[in-house]
């Protein structure tokens, strides 16, 4: 089982990045996918959630209106489009796969996003 994030990097305030998380080793389309982040000295924060079929989404208040989560179940990939980035968005971003308490939960290794001029 693997979740591999990519797309992080250094971006100036106001810029954009798109993170990707590609899954393997489990039935991706059965899982709710979530993006979390953890900034320096901060607790882990839930950023966005997308249902297994991609119909429903949820966003944390701090990113609402700026970030968009999407998924492609044919490519086993979930995306996080991040626009209007702020220095406070600086964090390691992790993708997470969750189905129910009866199934394992999976985490990626994280990708660093740094917003700085």
Please give the structural blueprint.
Layout: E1 2-6, E2 9-11, E3 17-24, E4 32-38, E5 45-50, E6 57-59, E7 67-72, E8 77-82, E9 91-98, E10 106-107, E11 111-115
Parallel strand pairs: 2-11
Antiparallel strand pairs: 1-3, 3-8, 4-5, 4-9, 5-6, 7-8, 9-10, 9-11
Task: Please tell me about this protein's structure.
- Helices cover 0% and strands 50% of the residues.
- It is an all-beta fold and 117 residues long.
- The chain is globular.
- The N and C termini lie far apart (37 Å).
- The mean pLDDT is 97.
Q: In what range is the share of β-strand residues?
A: over 45%
Helix content: under 10%
The global form is globular
What is the CA-CA span between the terminal residues? 37 Å
**Order of helices and strands, N to C?**
EEEEEEEEEEE
For the secondary structure, the number of strands is 11
Rg of Cα set: 13 Å
The structure class reads mainly beta
Major beta sheet summary: 7 strands, mixed
User: Could you name the ranges where pLDDT drops below 50 across 5 or more consecutive residues?
Assistant: none
Output the number of helix runs.
Answer: 0
In round numbers, the mean pLDDT is 97
Name the descriptors.
50% strand; 7-stranded mixed β-sheet; mainly beta; 11 strands; single chain; 117 residues; 0% helix; 4-stranded antiparallel β-sheet
Report a brief summary of the structure.
With 117 residues, the protein is mostly beta strands. It has strands spanning 2-6, 9-11, 17-24, 32-38, 45-50, 57-59, 67-72, 77-82, 91-98, 106-107, 111-115.
């Amino acid at each position: 089982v693997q979740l591999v994030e990519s797309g992080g990097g250094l971006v100036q305030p106001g810029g954009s990045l798109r993170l990707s998380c590609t899954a393997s080793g489990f039935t991706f389309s059965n899982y709710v996918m979530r993006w979390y982040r953890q900034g320096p000295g901060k607790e882990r924060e839930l950023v966005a959630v997308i249902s297994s079929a991609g119909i429903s989404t949820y966003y944390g208040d701090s990113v609402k209106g700026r970030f968009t989560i999407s998924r492609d179940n044919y490519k086993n990939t979930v995306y996080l489009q991040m626009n209007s980035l702020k220095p406070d968005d600086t964090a390691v971003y992790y993708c997470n796969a969750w189905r129910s308490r009866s199934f394992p939960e999976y985490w990626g290794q994280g990708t660093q996003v740094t917003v700085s001029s």
